[in-house]
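Record 1 of the preview.
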Amino acid sequence: MASFVPTSPDTVEDQRLYTQARLTEVACLDCLARVGVKKNSEHHTSVQWNAEARAHCPDLTRRSGGRDVHPACPRMLASIDAAARDGQIPIGAEDGY
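->
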């Protein structure tokens, strides 16, 4: 997989906005792992897992092999859905992010 290391300040800021802007921390209602979540629409959800959350999630620690993109932890997805229903996660992109 190709690696991209931004060098321009504008590119670094674009990368930060795309990966970190408007993230809301959500804790799993089961294992309490914490992830960053952004909902650009009702149907589009971005989830940022960090190493601590991946290590804390029993569903992810049982998996072996390389990078797991899908399927996600069903308990975390349910926790994110509950947080969105409760209004804890803002829905809608702002300034393209």
